[in-house]
Amino acid sequence: MKDFALIGAAGYIAPRHMKAIKDTGNQLVAALDKFDSVGIIDSYFPQADFFTEYERFDRHIEKLKRQGRDIDYVSICSPNYLHDAHIRFGLRHGADVICEKPLVLNPWNATALQEIEKEHNKKVYCILQLRLHPSVIELKKQVEAAPSDKVWDIDLTYLTSRGHWYYTSWKGENEKSGGIATNIGVHFYDMLMWIFGPVQKSTVHLHTHDRASGLLELERARVRWFLSINYEVIPEHIKETGARTYRSLQIGDQEFEFSGGFTELHTRSYEHILDGEGFGISDATAAIHLVHEIRNAETTGLDGNEHPLARLPLAKHPFKK
Ligand code: NAD
């Protein structure tokens, strides 16, 4: 049984990590969050120690180590811009690290972590759960089996809904989350590059507070992509089903729908890591480079190569004039 510590225990994604720790037969020993609304811990590990101050958490982990009880893994569920600092904390305490996506916001943060990983002889794993999605794995096999000079035309559409709270939280701040292409798009860019090869050219048509869209020319695909967190963008026939999220890849005339199965992959990710097969820093790097580039790209506006939904009228920011 492995001992885990977890950072960011009060947040949205933390329960999936707690469940994954439990499902894989391991235990959560200690957790940290600045916010103390963490009753959810009782559903999984009522004996875990909990801290709201980093220094006390650090002292506790150190004390356990002195008592001969090393933490094996630190799981990181904190805001994106804190990941690298929290990863260093785990490595310095002699633990392997399991970190949420995006591993870091900038390519140079990843390079620095690779050096620290070597210094401590420990591993950093990233949650790249779409690579474990059965339909995505099947699609990758189909692409690999096709003639190597085939280039696919793809429309990636990811429409989800976030309320006004999003813009008040760290997720609405570009310096903290990276903006929506980084925070939400990273899953899809990673998946597309994993299946269709590296980026040859990236164009960003638009990138506002609630949507982003562009064209990604990969080795084996030309992808018009559109991401949105604005409920109003979701087509009526989808809204009528009660859904608030829609994920689709249109590959030629084939619709590859993967709205289901997206949120149940944390346990699978943990199994994969504990089996010694987890995705490391080098696996996450291509997508980190791309989101950094997209975040800093000058938007071109519509040029005829855009995803059809990019032509929708833009929305006003709920708070900014
Ligand atoms: P969240 O805001 O709900 O949770 C973040 C938590 O971190 C909060 O409880 C906050 O109080 C805590 N926190 C902030 N600063 C801290 C600090 N200095 N020390 C300790 N705790 C601190 O966000 P979330 O949606 O749970 O996202 C957390 C991470 O998970 C992000 O990196 C996000 O990108 C990722 N995420 C991944 C998926 C996925 O499908 N893999 C889905 C959602 C979020």
The helix content, as a percent range, equals 25-40%
CATH class (first level) name of the largest domain: Alpha Beta
Strand line-up of the largest beta sheet: 3-2-1-4-5-6
- Structural category is alpha/beta
Q: What is the element string, with H for helices and E for strands?
A: EHEHEHEHEHEHEHHHHEEEHEEHH
Q: Classify the fold: give the CATH topology of the largest domain.
A: Dihydrodipicolinate Reductase, domain 2
Radius of gyration: 20 Å
Q: How many distinct beta strands?
A: 12
Distance between the termini: 54 Å
Query: Could you say how many structural domains there are in total?
Result: 2
Description:
The protein is of the alpha/beta class. It has helices at residues 14-23, 41-44, 54-66, 83-92, 107-120, 134-145, 165-168, 174-177, 180-183, 186-196, 236-239, 266-274, 281-296, and strands spanning 3-7, 27-32, 49-51, 73-76, 96-99, 124-126, 152-159, 199-207, 211-218, 221-228, 246-251, 254-257. It folds into 2 domains: 3-126, NAD(P)-binding Rossmann-like Domain (Rossmann fold, 3-Layer(aba) Sandwich), CATH 3.40.50; 130-262 and 281-311, Dihydrodipicolinate Reductase, domain 2 (2-Layer Sandwich), CATH 3.30.360.10. It has 13 helices and 12 strands. Strand 4, helix 4 and strand 5 (96-99) form a beta-alpha-beta unit. The model has no long low-confidence stretch (mean pLDDT 96). Residues 7-8, 10-13, 32-35, 77-80, 82, 100-101, 127, 129, 183 line the site of nicotinamide-adenine-dinucleotide.
SSE blueprint and pairings:
Elements: E1 3-7, H1 14-23, E2 27-32, H2 41-44, E3 49-51, H3 54-66, E4 73-76, H4 83-92, E5 96-99, H5 107-120, E6 124-126, H6 134-145, E7 152-159, H7 165-168, H8 174-177, H9 180-183, H10 186-196, E8 199-207, E9 211-218, E10 221-228, H11 236-239, E11 246-251, E12 254-257, H12 266-274, H13 281-296
The structure holds nicotinamide-adenine-dinucleotide (NAD).
